[in-house]
Records
---
Amino acid sequence: GALFGEQEDRRRPEQKAEPIVSEMSNRDGRNRVADQNGKKVLHLKSNQLWHTDSTFLPVPALANILTARVVPSSGGETEFVSTRAAFTRLPPDLQQKARDSIVTHRYAHSRAKISKELAREELFTMWPDQQWRAAWTNPVNGTEALYVASHGCSIDGMSDDDSEAFLAELTAFATGPEHVYSHRWTLGDVIVWDERATLHRGRPWPYDEERTLASICISVGPDDGFDSVRAA
């Protein structure tokens, strides 16, 4: 991860020490498979919404490195689409509308789509809302990408209904079945992707079986086009 930049750490300042590798797992603290209706698994089910990681943080993610440690007998794929390719397919008027749209991102918003109770957990309420433009320009090659996520909850100057409809339209446009790469994990696989230009989501699996992936997110740095997506 250090090859790409500074490693993201979502712990509170007083908890931070050495960087850690995050696990997405349905194994509970007693090393058992967690209840599929419990908060741990509901959180994982929230990741089955199309999203970009860390848009709810003051410094969003540049890249993610994801590897498989335990895979279930079936399901549990991770799906990806290029939002850079999606931007090039948008009609010019929608491209400009995306450039002009300032989206508010809230971690609890995506979790509330799965469980209102889950969304009230401190893990999902500890960061203030963040605002980013809905298009990100890569400073190396000048290409633009849609920058949207399931965490997006409103757009400046639009009603809640209109905001939801436009974000849903952009997501649906980007994630048509013909544009999706679905990765079926085998033990030890590693995938690295550009968070500025990719939407992804997990898929269901038999929840009585363990599924554990390990992740390192890398934070955006000053040379990664951050200024192009800032709201102000």
---
Amino acid sequence: MEITIRPIQASDNETLASIIRSSIEAFNLPTEGTAHSDPTTDNLFQHFQKDNSFYWVALEGDKVLGGCGVYPSKGLPAGCCELVRYFLAPEARGKGIGKTLLDQSVATAKELGYETMYLESFPDMKEAIRIYEQNGFEYLDHALGNTGHFACNVWMKMSL
């Protein structure tokens, strides 16, 4: 079946929250200080109604497989956005869907006028880290801004 990428809809909230939380649990990552405990995870559609933000959703037929967003997180330098809530269901991994979502999010960030993109992750998310490295993200030695995700210990940034 064909994969489609479209903007988030309110009806995606429950499925995306489940994908995000189950992914964090599957990688044995902390639940506190991550998207797992972030209250906005349950209401992503509403969260991404903020100016200069956008969230893309991948689907196979009508089935939501995951998503990826661009967000002006608190405290980031001027012209910088955060790549956020980049998660895929297990059956969607390793098929190029994540790369497509990343490319779409980078293009959207550029269209919104951002100059740099920041992200937070974990070393155990090896495939995601590999994609980030291959796409020009460089490691930072500290967090930027105030995302509230204090448990994350990989920080990366790239110039758009």
---
Amino acid sequence: MSKVLYIVFLQLIVLSCKGQPDKLIACGSDKVIIISANKTNEDLESRMLWEWSPYDAKSLPEEYKKKYFIKIDECKPTKNGNQIMITASTGGVAIIDKPTKDVVFYSYLANAHSIEELPNDRIAVAGSNHEKGNCVAIFNRHTFGEEPITKSKLFAGHGLVWDKTKQLLFVLGGNELQTYKLIHWESKSPKIELQERWDLPDVGGHDLISYSSDELLITTNNNVWVFNKSNGGFKIFTQLGNQKFIKGLSVSKGENKRIAFVQGEEKWWSHNIYLTNPYLKITQPSINFYKVRWWNYD
């Protein structure tokens, strides 16, 4: 490519990204990172804006640092980006204070795979395949290291989305999608009550994200699906249909939606993060990436 054409190519990249989010949060191994999404090279180090490992958290017990956060599988910003909720398949559950990198909450749930903030300073955590997992667990975010307040059985829990309008918790398992209602939520003994369930059109539910006010996106072993909350229907998400083993998925807001995803290329993880519109591949051989989310904050 000539120098002139290369400059034109870079200008087109910049123009196509204008108005779109330009940062991502991703996790894998024992790392959580925030990176630039708009540079044209694949190298991750030049993109790095913020990073965290368990050893950055002074309040985290040694057992958690050495054992429970070695395979981080979820990272969701909350509190306007000032905090980050994380889980690990090795059992760790935490909320990180982004400025200090310390934790403001931590606990344990076997094979934890996702986390969601609920009203009244409570959080939901999905536990996947394990004799002490396979559940949705509710924690008080102000009690460190304690057992869940309540649990509900769910095979291979992998994803969580709180619908504030409907006041329902959507929960993804290995072969079904469920909704739960919050019961006695103002009391000290809250519960969650199963409302509806739908069989997935494919096996291996992996990720669950909000797509619109009435739609969710679900990734499974062989496809990405749009789920309609009103009619309970599933259809192929055409932008990524027939893509197998997508572990983490995020779609930017606005008209020109940009997709970020991690695909299970090395067993259940990948060393790559993929972006569409325009296409980019971000590579880091030292991190086994699992989830990626758009970072919509400064």
---
Amino acid sequence: MRRRPARSERGQTTVELAIVLPLIVVFLLFVVQVGVVVRAQLMVTHAVREGARAAAVGEDPTAAVVAASSLDPERLVVSRSGGDQAGELVTIAVEFVAPTDVPLVGAFVGDVTLSTTATMRVEG
């Protein structure tokens, strides 16, 4: 047999849900924000590889980085070092400031700076 809750216990479940639900929502928003930043990191990694490949064949690496991704060009910094002659190594570094725009969580986290490098041998 099931015991019916006493009058004083009837609203307990509702109160517990009202206390826990906002915490669950904030946690889920945090998970979404982490997913957005991880996606941006993957895009930065792809873009730097494209930039290194462009530099290795004598093209403009900055244009290749911007074309290879849907990242905001105003938040991108592309730098090149080495690779002035055929056979040398050229290194491309990309830095991207990823915005944290997810409601509630983004205000607490702040923008995240993502950076990566890629090195390739310049073709003759």
